[in-house]
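[Q] Does anyone have a clean structure-token version of this?
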Amino acid sequence: MTNVLYFSASALVGYLLGAIPFGYLYVKLFRNVDVRQIGSGRTGGTNSFRAAGLGAGILTSLSDVLKGVTAIWIVSALFSTQLWLPWAQAVAGLFTVIGHNWSVYIKWAGGAGTGPNVGWSAALWWPMLPISLAVMVGLLRGLGIASVASMAMAVIIPLVFALRYAAGLDGTFAYTAAGIATLFVVLWALRPNIKRLFDGTERIVGPRARRQQNPKQ
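[A] Here you go.
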């Protein structure tokens, strides 16, 4: 029973932090519009950029990553002496993504989960941050499809932790399990985008979008 309470506390910490709708708040602050009424309707960095410009997009992305980092830090501090700490961290990380995607603060709206997904995983293994930066920037600049970049990162996170576990660098399967779970959460949130990808109608952003609009440049 005590362990159930601890894991419930970890889930609550993760969810309440993950649910903070930074994209909604920044777009309201900068443009006084509701980001849910623009573009994809999501509250993540890409749609915040679309709604209120580069500054809002960057601030949203950084803040969303920080939600995942903070959840891991809090749970690590609360349960630092417990043998099952890695599983508590895994639960907190998973629920930051769930909270981000379905926020109680804004009537269950949210994003696709990429920011907090990167955040919790980077808090446990810091090289995940530069890896995610390279993957996201590379795919956004080259392919120009934010949903593909999000899905790629969602696949990379459990893959990296699985390789670390297989190599004996992580003494627990908890992080791999959390990565697999967040992969399915991200894919579920991106169902409309996946349909548009198959239909060939998914939104293009960044340099590729500009090249399509101005093919002579």
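[Q] Thanks! Anything notable?
[A] The chain has a mean pLDDT of 92.
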